[in-house]
Amino acid sequence: MANALVSIQIIPKTPNGEDVIPFVDAAIEVIEAAGVKYQVNPLETTMEGELSALLVIIEKMNQRMLDMGCTSNISQIKIYTRADNQASMEKLTEKYH
Fold it and tell me: Where in this chain does the record put each Thiamine-binding protein domain (predicted)?
């Protein structure tokens, strides 16, 4: 099990005022390449894993936006941790399924 869930909504300022969706898709590709468990939701993406590793992924996501020409990014982040290493998306939401 993981010790953390991290949800991120990345809001890039695109170079020429383009639609942000292709940029957000590129940010999600960074998560996918990292190999962590994740779930894309309408307004944010949630990752599951070790907190330090997830924060590195967020740093890479922001760097990817800059590499794509974005002049700035806003990353809204929520973090859920458990001392017993039992943080999971399934456990946290099981009563809703």
Answer: 6-96
Considering the segment(s) 4-96 as one domain, its CATH architecture is: 2-Layer Sandwich (3.30)
Helix (H) or strand (E) holding 46: strand 45-49
Closest to 47 in 3D by CA, of 55, 56, 58, 36? 36
The tens digit of pLDDT for each residue in 38-82 reads: 999 999 999 999 999 999 999 999 999 999 999 999 999 999 999
Q: Which amino acid is at 93?
A: T
User: In degrees, to the nearest 5, what angle opens at C-alpha 48 toward C-alphas 40 and 94?
Assistant: 75
The pTM assigned to this predicted structure is 0.92
Structure tokens at 10: 């990345």
